[in-house]
Structures are given as C-alpha cells and as structure tokens.
Amino acid sequence: MTETKTASTIARQRVDDLAARHGEAGWLKEARLSDWELYLKCPMPTPRDQDWHGTDLSALDLSAFTAVDFQPVEPKSPPEHPFVARTLRHFSRRAGVIVQAVGRPGYIELDAGLAARGVILCDLSTALREHGDRLRPYLAVPAKPDLNKFGLMARALFNCGLFLFVPPGVEIDLPILSMALTGGATAGSAIFPRLIVLAGDNSKVSLIHASAGEGAGRSGGGESAPVLHSGLVEIQAGAGARVSFLDLYQFGSNVVSVNRSEAAVAQDAEFTSLTVALGGGTTKSDIATYLQAPGAASWVSGLVLGSGHEHFNFNTIEEHNAPDTRSDINFRVALGDSSASVYQGIIRVARVAQRTNAYQQNRNLLLGGQSKADSIPKLEILADDVKCSHGATVGPVDRDQIFYLMSRGLTESEAEELIVLGFFKTVLESYPVAEAVDWVLESASQKLFRKPSGQTPAI
Amino acid sequence: MAAELTKPADIRSIGADYKYGFRDEEKYAFKSGRGLTPEIVAKISQMKGEPEWMLKFRLKALETFLKKPMPRWGNSELLDAIDFQNIYYYIKPSEKQGKNWDEVPEGIKKTFDRLGIPEAERKFLAGVTAQYESEVVYHSIREDLEKQGVIFLDMDSGLREHEEIVREHFGKVIPPADNKFAALNSAVWSGGSFVWVPPGVKVEIPLQAYFRINAENMGQFERTLIIAEPGSYVHYIEGCTAPIYSSDSLHSAVVELIAKKGAHIRYTTIQNWSKNVYNLVTKRAVAHEDAKIEWVDGNLGSKLTMKYPSVYLVGPRAHGEVLSVALAGGEQHQDAGAKMVHAAPDTSSIITSKSISKDGGRATYRGLVKVYKNATNVKSSVRCDALLLDEKSRSDTYPTMEVDEQQVTIEHEATVSRVGEEQLFYLMSRGLTAAEATTLIVNGFFEPFTKELPLEYAVELNRLIQLEMEGSVG
Fold it and tell me: How many domains does chain A have?
C-alpha cells in the first residue's frame, strides 16, 4: 500500500508527504502549510474558553495520534455493514451513494443521467486530482479567524472526504447518500475527512451524510487512547439554489469528534441543515451559516440524543451579512443516564443586514438521573430594523403526559420513548427529504431502546 | 412640586448639617498618592483605625487583585484601557473641593436645569459646594427605625460599632478572590452602608444612600453589607437620578446581602454616573429558606458598566428576582445582567431585562441560571427585551443556563427589535412629533421598571429618559 510511505504521525513531515504523495498542486501545499503554522500557534482549547464552555479535551495529546485514511472507493458493491444496509434500505430511491471506510474498500454509485449533466460525486482525493481548478477557489482561502485548533489541524492534514458538484440549473430531486465508516480505526488513530459541496446557481441538491463508528477501536485496546475524528464540511449554495444537508453522527463511546461545518448562502438561496447526534464519547461541532446576499435564508436544526457518559457540545453560528435575510434555528436535546450537552448559538446581525428576521430555539429534555444540559443562546445585533428572538427551555419529561400514556396501556419506558420521539419529530417535520425522517427516527429509537434493526418506531 | 420630588429632604440637609468644617478648609484631610501599593492599603486601614483582621483582609485581597488577570470576556478593549496606577484609591473628604461651577460640563448643568433642581442643590450635586467621596459623611435614619433596633450606618462606622456582626459576614458572600474587581474593592474599600434589620422587623420606608465621585481620577470603592434577620423586610435604595459628574473614574463597589429565613430584601439602584466612569460592580445576595431577594437595577450612565446582580438561593423555597433596565447612548456600553444560582429545592427565580441602544451605544445582557444537582422543582424564567433605536447601535444577549437537575422548569426568552413603524405612525397621527412618540414608546417599554420605583424616582427617571431621548429621532 502506498500509505505506508506516508508519515502517519501528526507532524510537519506528514503535510509534506501528503502533498508529495498525491502530486498535489503548489497552491494546496501552501494552504496546508499555512494552516499547519496556525495550528502550531493556536492554543489547545480549555473548558474555560467561551466556545468550549465545559468541554474538556485538554488531556488529548494531538501529536500522539496516528493518521488513517479511508480506502479508495470502487463502483462494485457496498461494504457489508449493518448500518450501510439499513441506510440503503431506507433510501431505496436515491440519486447517488458514496461509502467510505477505514480498513475496507469503499463504494460509489451515481445516477448516469446526472453524471451526463455534469454532476460530480467523488472522493476528495480523486477530486483533487481531477477537479483541482474547481476546488481551488474554496480550498486556497484562509481559515475563518474563529476556527479552532482541531479545525486548523484538519485543514492542514485532511486526506479524504467527498466532493459534490451540481452544475447551475441542475435540480436533483432524490437524495445523495454519503456514509463514512470509522469503525475500522484502531485506538489512537485520527481521521480528517473534508466534505466540499458546490451547488451552482438555481440548482437543487440534498446530501445525507452519516459518520458511523459503531464499535470503533474495540480491537485497539486501552480506553485511554480514543479515536479522533476531525471533520470539515464546506457548502456553497449559489444564487437561487436549494441545498439541504443532513449530518448524522453515530460514533462509539471512544470517539472524540470535533467538527466544523460552514455554509455560504448566496442571493435568494435556501439552505436547510439538520444535524443528528446519536453517539460519541465527546462530540464538539460548530455549525456556521453565512447569509451573504439579500434573500438568503437558512433553517438550521439539530437533534441530540445522549446516553451513558456521552458529552455533546454544539455551537451554531448564524451570520446575517446582507439585508433581507432570514434564519431559523431549532435545536432539541434529549439526555439520558449521565450524558451532558452544551448548546451555544449565536445570531450575528451585521450593520448592513437590515430587515433581518432571525429566530433561535433550544429545548432540552432531561431523562436520566445524572444528565446535564447547558444552553447559551446569544444575540449580537448591529442593525436596527430587525426581528430577532430566541427561546430556550430545560425541563424533565412531563409527568402528566407519561401518566396519560400509561393510562392508555403503555409501559413507562414506552411512554417516555414516545414523548422523546415526538419531541424530535416536530423538528424533523420541516425537513424536506421524507425518507430521512423515518431513518432518523428509527436510528434514534434504536439508540433509546437498543432495538434490533428493522423494527419500526412507534410513531 | 417637581423640585420637591427630585430631591428627598435628606440631600438638602447634607450641606446644612455638615459639621466637619469643610467649608473653611482648602485641602483634603488625606489623599492617597496615585497607584496601589501595600503601603497605601496599610495607610487606608491605619487612617480608619481598623482592627488587625481587616488590615490583613485588605492586604491579602490586594495580593489577589495583583495576581488576577483582567477578565477576557465583556468589553476587553475598554477594560484594558484602565490605568490602575493613575487612580487615587482613597480620598478623605473633610473639606471643600477646589472645583467651581464654571467647570461643570454644560450637559450636566442642562440636565439639572431640566429636572428643575434649584441652583444651590445643583452646585451640591455637581460637587462644587459640598461633596462626600470615599467616606459617607451623611446618612439619616429616622428615630422610629432606631427604636425598632435597625442599624443603618456607613460601613466604616459599622465596623467600629458592630465589629462582631461585620466580621461574621464581611466578604463571606463575595470573597475577595471572586473576581479582579471584588479583590480591588476588598483591598481599598471605603464607605458604603451597613444595614442590620432585627428579626421580624419590617422597615416601612426605603433606606437611601447616595454615592458620589468628585475628585478627578478618583476611584470609588464602597462596600455595602445588608443583613436581614429572620422574618424581616428592608428596601434599600442607592444612587441618584441626577447625573453624577466626574472625569474618568473607576467605581468598583461590592454589595453583599444576606436574607435569613423568611426575610425579604429589595435593593434598588439607579446608576447615572457621568459618561466617563467605569462602573464595575459585584452585587450578590444569599437567600435562605423562604427568603426573598429583589434587585431592581437601572443603568443610565457610565462609560462601561459591568454589573450582574446575583442571588444564591441556598434554602428551600427561596425566591430571587432581578428587574433591570439599561439605556446605552453614544460611546456607552451597558454590560448588565443577572445571575441566579439554585442550590436548594423548590427555589424560584425571575429575571426581566430591558435595554435600549441608541446613538451608537451598546447594550449587553449577560446572565446565568445555574441549577445544582438535587435542587428539585426549581422554576426559573428569564425574559430579555431589547430595543434598537438606530442603525449605529448594538444589542447583545448572552444568557447561560447550566442545569444539573432533571426536575426543573427553566425558560429563557429574548427579543430584539426596533420601535415599530406602526406604533410611531399611530402616535404621530394623534398629533405627537416623532421624538415625542418615540419617547412615549420608550417610557412604556421601561414601565415594568419605573412602576417598581418610589414615586419621586419614577418621575425623575421618566424625565431623564425624556432628556436622553432628545435628538434621537428626526
């Protein structure tokens, strides 16, 4: 395997090797190196940092991780994996699939008609080789100033991921699926996937991305060495485009996942984002949306279901940088056992962004005896002709509702399941891909009661 | 009559009753050098004839202050501009100040004028005929309060006359290490009020105290401690609705409230420092079983205010409320909020915050609701409303909710908007000018606050808002 020649440690040598191995263009190597320098200078976040609020990764020795790659994708057959099988069953009608995995070959398929119309779906290594010119305007730009150490690390070291390009005017009605399986990663390994989605003017596309690492690292030994997943998602929604993105995490408890997604929304474009966090030891994600031109709109929602000692830290950043833009954020968190969640969300309205309409909602349902929820919804408003508001709640499952359902013959746990799924369903209802709703509810239901795959949820 | 309303009798009597002979002398009895050293702290303590434990408390606090870094949140740019070495930490006012009426800024004179304050009182308020700086040289207490056994003294006298009570509670609600400015206050505090209300006593009239800065580059570090014994009630009002003039100054107070079982304390502040004062204040209350604490907090003045009145609800069924309003005009940053810490079951809290930003001002709500494990059946609701009056201004909302217990109901809501065109149109169609209409809407927006104030304060506050609003529209 060629990989063995690449230094796998987190070091400058690896940046050089990555560039050399793929014969990467000079601009890309420069971008990697400048991010690497920033990474070295950037301090390790601490729980006292505002953006991290109580999430503690300071004990991680980043230089001790060993970087791993997804294996190349082939158009043969999807890897045999229960998560893949279940997902494909749900999305029997689809426009394309890409499955990437650590330790086993991946899979790719794309509707031939779409390919003929210029739609590109490929892994990122292939894209860098074949579509470098398309990627350059997005990869050769400096990192956002608020990008944290993990994001800079991923920008310097990314080596796998996905590229989706939809030409102007092309409307894809069926969803495109992407699955990233990290279960093959052994303890102490790190993976840096990067997703780039370019949706041309007046195009339409739905990308459903799932990162799953069930049982990750089981063979790898000690609990002290987690698997690090540090991912980047960059989405460009061109003028008048309609883009929806579903990002589902279902990691094992030994995975530390730190992610940053950024979507730039152009004039009159509509961006819908749904983040579903169903598992992971520590999951920290920043979800940034930039409304860049008049008429841009975004719906950013999230579902978090925690159990065990899982710790989630989600931060939504909504920047209104142009007049007549609107945004709606709805983040719902249900926490069982000793799980914990921090939700932070900021709406920033620039001075020019008059007639902004922004709403932010965060609801937290505490199920378990030791669970904890923090909520920090923030507003920074510099324009005056705006409508901005937010609401946040934290509370237990309503005992009256439980009592009512039990009086109808449900057990207490069934009643609680129904209430939690109902709590999530209100968010899902506005999601434009109908198949995704059932898939997410089933995944959540399985997590709630660890039901065998295939059983339909109660609602 | 307006003049009567603007000025409670207490103030007018200050000059008349003042018996320390300051009219005849030209110098301060003592003015510390600029800057902050252990020698200055020791000198303050010695001047006051304090017991040894207070000197030690001060010196330890000074160490903490010097060690603690400047907070990295809030308005770091303005905070970093404070030059701690260029501040007088202690001035004992025993004489007339060398300033004269002509030096008082036009804006402040005009405000006095518009509030209808008589010439003599204006001079007093502007600090040109009488002043009391670090020492509270005046307080009044009605005879009937004395009969009830209520203690209402300035903090220095409190320490002299009731050392045991002070020693038991001083710095216990807000330890010096709490934050950099609490440490600073603990090292150099002077003045403030000491209030002790005996069990079961309800103090019918609000206790009032006025604090004032007159000397340039003068820090003011008053220290207030209020202890309400079981079943008692007291309402304490600090501040003054007329603007308090000074050149660039630092005001860093520490206020500690203790409400014992079933006691009720209401603490009202109307802050109207002149627009070059840093107002960095730590206010915290402890509410025991069935106790109730209310902070009613209005912020109109200052360059930068950072103030987050808190209630630690440590006994079952304790209740805390913060009602605050802020008006941020040009070059002002009102960074205010509230903290509610629920550490016992069946406790409840309400935070209501209203802010207005105009002429490029910035109003920030920053708050915390914390629920500890086992604090079951907690109810908390937070409501923040912000009005933006023009496109130069800014409004921020930074609430934090930390919940470690399941059986709770926590709610937070915030809105930011501007004065509605429809509201303006309606009022103007009834013959009001745009400015009058806006002022009316702003007054209405602040109404939940003003209705909690004693009448004379409410009247003055409305007038002040009217003054602040002039020229905002059109």
Answer: 2
